[in-house]
Write a structure and sequence with these properties.
By secondary structure, this protein is of the alpha/beta class. It contains seven helices and eight strands, in the order αβββαβαβααβαββα.
């Protein structure tokens, strides 16, 4: 039985809106209800089925402690991607997909290490020991690395699962994940290719409101039972115990 409340919420958040009719993928035909004002409109009853299935898959992955990477570099997705990743303790890429991020991970790890080292040097005041020109060069490099790797600066291994906003826009991320057989769950507009991801949600990928709604729908799932490299608490920072340790109050 369809979840009519969810369908209404999706309608209210413009999840049903696709791209202009001249820009579409025939593979999305089964998920399109019709055309309105020259825009494809998704069948929200079918979107409801897909979003529910993806949520179940993510819940299963989270229960097994899978490392989740959320990808969305288009302008409409950036804030929502960063917000949900930080709220759930997952990793994210929201400015640019660096080629080889998955398929050449050892090199990427070195770049991340360089980024973390410069940040440590900056905090420790070590950059003040450099010449003005050297310091400016380091700060320029730091800015570049931060934009690329801020959301994955603590990652230790390739992710186990990708959540991708707009699979058509993030085709390189999906291709690399496919090469490594990493499960991918994509938000796809009417231009999407369903063959390049494990599962998908047919939805509006051009609206901040729609993207946020879909990601928020998954939020409790990937946060509730998530276990990552850091164990049950994921990336949560540990507070040093009081010294000496006393019995609990």
């Amino acid at each position: 039985m369809a979840n009519t409340a969810l369908i209404k919420d999706m309608l209210d958040n413009a999840v049903h809106i696709g791209h202009k009719r001249q820009f579409w993928s025939a593979k999305m035909r089964d998920y399109i209800y019709g055309i309105q004002n020259n825009i494809h409109v998704f069948d929200l009853y079918k979107t409801e089925v897909r979003i529910t299935e993806v949520k179940k898959a993510l819940e299963e992955a989270a229960s097994k402690g899978k490392v989740v990477l959320i990808v969305g570099t288009k302008l409409q997705a950036r804030d929502a991607v960063k917000a949900i990743a930080e709220e759930t303790g997952n990793y994210y890429i929201n400015t640019k997909w660096v080629p080889g991020l998955l398929t050449n991970f050892p090199t990427i790890k070195k770049r991340i290490a360089a980024y973390n080292q410069i940040e440590k040097d900056l905090e420790a005041g070590a950059l003040e020991m450099l010449t003005k020109k050297e310091k400016a060069s380091k700060l320029k490099e730091l800015d570049k690395l931060r934009k690329a790797y801020e959301g994955i600066k603590d990652i230790k291994k390739t992710p186990d699962v990708l959540i991708v906003v707009d699979g058509h826009y993030e085709s390189l991320a999906l291709e690399e994940a496919q090469t490594l057989k990493i499960p991918t769950y994509a938000l796809l507009g009417s231009t999407g290719d369903i063959d390049h991801c494990t599962d998908f949600v047919p939805c509006n990928v051009n609206s901040i409101k729609s993207i946020k709604f879909v990601l928020d729908y998954f939020k409790s799932t990937i946060k509730r039972v998530k276990k990552t490299e850091g164990g049950l608490m994921g990336r949560t920072e540990k507070l040093a115990p009081k010294s000496p340790v006393t019995e609990e109050e």
